[in-house]
Amino acid sequence: TSHVTFRFKLFLSNKQRRNREIRKWINIKEGNLLRYLSKLSLSRDTKLRL
Questions:
Q1: How many other C-beta atoms can be found within 10 angstroms of the C-beta atom of residue 15?
Q2: Which SUPFAM superfamilies match (predicted)?
């Protein structure tokens, strides 16, 4: 997934040159991704405990 996010960031950075407002949107996207990943790791932990 890292190469996908990298490509996604490249795509957004190209857009960002044209439009500065997308910066906030990147932060929102990354925040959601981090939350999603942390939830995933938590669910893995609970599975291991069971």
A1: 14
A2: Ribosomal protein L39e (SSF48662)
- Residue 9: what pLDDT? 77
The mean pLDDT of 32-40, rounded to a whole number, is: 70
Look up the pTM and report it: 0.29
Q: What is the rounded CA–CA span in Å between residue 8 and residue 2?
A: 10
- Per the CB < 8 A criterion, the answer to whether 5 and 33 are in contact is yes
Q: Which residues contact 26 (CB under 8 A, 6 or more apart)?
A: 9, 12, 16
22 and 12 Cβ atoms separated by less than 8 Å? yes
Encoded tokens for 46: 């609970």
Return the structure tokens found at 8.
């996604």
